Amino acid sequence: MTEFRTVGSAGDHPEGGLRAYEVDGEPVAVARTEAGWFAFHDTCTHNACSLADGDLEDGTVVCVCHGGTYDLRTGEVLAGPPPEPVRTYPVRVEGDEIQVGTEGSP
Amino acid sequence: MAPVGPGAIVVVGAGLAAASAVGELRRREFDGRIVLIGEEPLPPYERPPLSKEYLRGERDLGSVLVRPASWYGEQGVETRFGTRAVALDVRSREVVLADGERVEFDRALVATGARNRRLPIPGLDLDGVLDLRTAPDADRIREAAGRGSRACVVGMGFIGAEVAASLRTMGLDVAALDVFGVPLERALGPEVGRAIDSLHREHGVELHMGSPVAAIEGTGGRARAVTNERGDRVACDFVVVGLGVRPNVEPVEGSGIEVDDGILVDAHLETTAPGVFAAGDVARHRHPLFGPVRVEHYDNAIRMGVAAAAGILGEREPFADPHWFWSDQYEANLQVVGVASEWDRLVIRGSVEERSFVAFSLSAGRLVMAAGVNRGRDVRRAKKLIGREADAEALADEGTDLRELAGV
Ligand SMILES: Cc1cc2nc3c(=O)[nH]c(=O)nc-3n(C[C@H](O)[C@H](O)[C@H](O)COP(=O)(O)OP(=O)(O)OC[C@H]3O[C@@H](n4cnc5c(N)ncnc54)[C@H](O)[C@@H]3O)c2cc1C
């Protein structure tokens, strides 16, 4: 069952931006876009760079190190060198709380 | 209903551009015959790790394949790996293989990449003189690194600089020689080159810059030292040479297709023979912004492969990518967007000393190149500014969000 954990305040989260939070000791990047909120593991599967340091472009997150490009919804690799998709998480905003869903252990 | 789209598509060369084109053809639901012909016995793989993680033994061959080896069969792509194409007959529309077999095509893509340039340096044929283009080349360097303790790197362009960094990281002593005053100077100019020079010196590379290599000296048929014209003599257990590449144009020679430091292609990546396209390191492309350019980088090979596939299927969108690439050396991540061999103004954003900066090259007021060290985000954001009139003050100001300059 998915359990939602509060990771931070929506008001503090940059508009149209990315920020890394921690969920069960794992770094999780949360993206706020015009299409809504998305959450995914904050580690590029290519060289382990932080995806929260990257950029949001047309429904994707682009890794700052080598341009690996993931679909925000599915975590699928759309371009660049990453060998594997990035894990995505359910995310919701309750009041001012950003909540990320986890399955317990991955 | 009559079949839609072209007949058989033959792809010559099975590297990154080829794999990317084949993937795009199937993604666009082209379900006709595709034949992929490659000289190397391996399915298409990525070369960037060969001077980095793969060379250092941190990644294996399976993890550098562009697609799993089974993908081609699953997608109905006929593969001829380990087979060299020797000619392209534009009139009979056939590709001729080394064993004499002829493969008919309706449309063809030439993506044969490039090979290492061999300069007339005495001693280049000695044992222990290595270069790097393929996975077996990287294996040989790794093996030499396991046996020896001191390496000479000849040429501090991207490949040489990355190999030097990897060998240092693996604990070897490294000496490097180059005719230029600083590493990467030919590609990026002296300012960025100086930052890379200090990076390598801090990591203990012994640099012998500013003098052409004279010879590789050996005893008993094995390389022992490299000398330059200034008279430096640098002893080492093996030598890695990285002196640039030449495009593999052989299959189209004599076909009538125009060649000039690469296979000439128009804005749509079509060669002078209708229905024959070229992409990747081998293609010299009439770029809408930069004029005729041939670039030797990963992202370009992928994007050109995708664009050539679209062209083969009849799309007429010019390829106008601003060209972006990276290089990793030690903990430094270098990224470059744009293409320029000269500029009249250089604007620095950030700190060269702290190795966190972007150098913007301006020519007649326009941004032609942005090269950054540990500034991936800025460089990627500068992509949209390439070719446009540049506001030098705004570029230099760390307070400016480069996305705003681009109006996005
Ligand atoms: C060690 C190394 C590190 C690199 N690091 C980076 C990096 O960090 N960043 C970056 O942007 N770029 C990097 N590059 C460059 C990048 O790998 C190339 O630009 C890219 O591989 C070009 O793709 P391609 O498909 O054009 O050519 P290739 O990948 O070279 O593929 C061409 C293939 O065609 C085959 N072939 C040639 N002739 C024939 C023939 N007659 N018949 C059949 N097959 C033939 C070749 O054997 C080869 O397998 C690096 C390159 C090397 C060698």
Structure description:
The complex is a heterodimer of chains A (106) and B (408). Chain A has 106 residues and is mostly beta strands. Chain A contains no helices and 11 strands. Chain A is globular and about 35 Å long. In chain A, the strands form 3 sheets. In chain A, strands 2-3-4-9 form a 4-stranded antiparallel β-sheet, with no helix packed on it. In chain A, strands 5-6-7-8 form a 4-stranded antiparallel β-sheet, with no helix packed on it. A 3-stranded antiparallel β-sheet of chain A has the order 1-11-10, with no helix packed on it. With 408 residues, chain B is α/β, with parallel strands linked by helices. Chain B folds into 3 domains: 176 residues, FAD/NAD(P)-binding domain (3-Layer(bba) Sandwich), CATH 3.50.50; 113 residues, FAD/NAD(P)-binding domain; 76 residues, 2-Layer Sandwich (Enolase-like, domain 1), CATH 3.30.390. Helices cover 22% and strands 31% of the residues of chain B. Chain B is built from 10 helices and 26 strands. A 5-stranded parallel β-sheet of chain B has the order 3-2-1-7-19. A 5-stranded parallel β-sheet of chain B has the order 9-16-10-11-12, with helices on one face. In chain B, strand 2, helix 2 and strand 3 form a beta-alpha-beta unit. The termini of chain B are far apart. The mean pLDDT of chain B is 96. Chains A and B meet through loops of A and helix 7, strand 22 and helix 8 of B. The site of flavin-adenine dinucleotide has 37 residues of chain B, from helix 1, strand 2, helix 7 and strand 22. The site of flavin-adenine dinucleotide (FAD) has 37 residues of chain B, from helix 1, strand 2, helix 7 and strand 22.
